[in-house]
Amino acid sequence: RNLLQLLLSFAVGGLLGDVFLHLLPEAWSMALEGGAGTHEAFTQVGLCVLAGIFLFIIVEMMATHGSAGPTNNNTKGNPQNTKEVCGYLNLIANGIDNFTHGLAVAGAFMVSYKTGILTTGAILIHEIPHEVG
User: Fold this and answer.
1) Subcellular location, in the record's words (predicted)?
2) Nearest by Cα to 100 from 125, 128, 119
């Protein structure tokens, strides 16, 4: 149990580090390069992040509310159902992530063979901590 908590902490830290140190700064710089002002770029990226968080919260609430079953005073729902819903949400997010990786690899190979090989290698290196997480 302690090892699982340690690995979970490592996974959450790795994913949050990836978001705050890599993905959000890249999204902000792309918005700034697109001609948006500083305030507009931060607002656009921030609203997209909030929309994604709220969308997954709403989907999880709808999925757990409809089939939580009877509860007693000691529990707040069916833990097995919560695990199942989280599994489906993880599957959807992983599918979207893999789809965008495929788009990146295909686009890179359209540029040149060398760029495609480099992009494939970069995505493979990215997938190691991602899948550990």
Assistant:
1) Membrane
2) 119
- What single-letter amino acid sits at 82? T
51-86 pLDDT tens trace? 988 988 887 787 776 555 555 545 555 666 667 777
Q: How far is CA 40 from the centre of its chain?
A: 23
Rounded to 5 degrees, φ, ψ at 64 are: -80, -25
Biggest alpha carbon–alpha carbon distance for the chain: 62
Structure tokens at 8: 């979970």
Q: What DSSP state is assigned to residue 77?
A: S
Is residue 32 within 8 Å of 41, Cβ to Cβ?
Answer: yes
Q: Can you tell me whether residue 78 is helix, strand or coil? A: coil
- What predicted TM-score, i.e. pTM, was given to this entire model? 0.49
Cβ atoms of residues 2 and 124 within 8 Å: no
| Residue carrying the six token digits 């040149």 | 112
Nearest CA to 79 out of 88, 66, 69 is that of: 69
